[in-house]
Amino acid sequence: MHPVLFHVGNLVVPAYGASAAIGVVLALLLAQRTARLTGVNAADVWNLSILALFAALIGARLLLVVVNWRDILLHPGWIFGLSMVHHPLVSAAGAACGALFAWLYARRRRMPLRITADALAAPLALGLAFEQFGALLAGSGYGVPSGARWAVTYTSILAERWSGTPLGLPLHPVQAYAALAHLTIAVVLLLWLPVRRREGDLAGLWFLLTGISIFLTELWRDPEGRGMLFGGLLDGPQAAAIAFVLAGGALLVERKPSQAAAATNATVLADSDREDGHA
User: Is residue 10 part of a domain?
Assistant: First the structure.
């Protein structure tokens, strides 16, 4: 595949970064649309998304600096190459930082959390689809050896250097599987958005479907560096996927209506009874 998309003089434009950047732009534009459909202030959703994005990038790179600080002190120039490093733990740290700052901003702006999460669900799935496509080009999060006709073989030394990708060996294009899964989830969420029954339903469905897709695609990913749990029964992303499924189930479970909603329903019923009596 192609870890480097193109060169501009001595400047290297990595395929992973370019694909992820396109995904971010499309996700931000889509979030403006879904914000209006869900009734959330579009400007607040934009600001929240930008803040979460920068927090995720900074958090992920800070983790790399902390882990490799001795090497960076010896070779300060290496800090400019940190953006080429892709690792599940780094991604998890970035996602946690982004989610934390998004939650803090939403609380500060008094944004309704469930509705805001609904507005962000489909854009997030779209962004993850492009991120996984970039990983396919770069060789990051590569799959296990495969004899399938659609297997991919990496030959670029940069894929090996940046992501530890084995060269000359046919591998499952698991990143493509994940990209298609995320893209499908985005389409499903967009179709469900106009007919959702309750606040938080889209967010719950995103957690549920994303957890299932991560768990299944991990079956074809190489386990190197992904953290094995319970004697190799699960890896780190699969454990996170189970947590996602549980969170999605908690959001989708039938909830009792709030007191305000109950009062509104009682008023509507009373008005209806009154009109029937007059009739």
Answer: yes
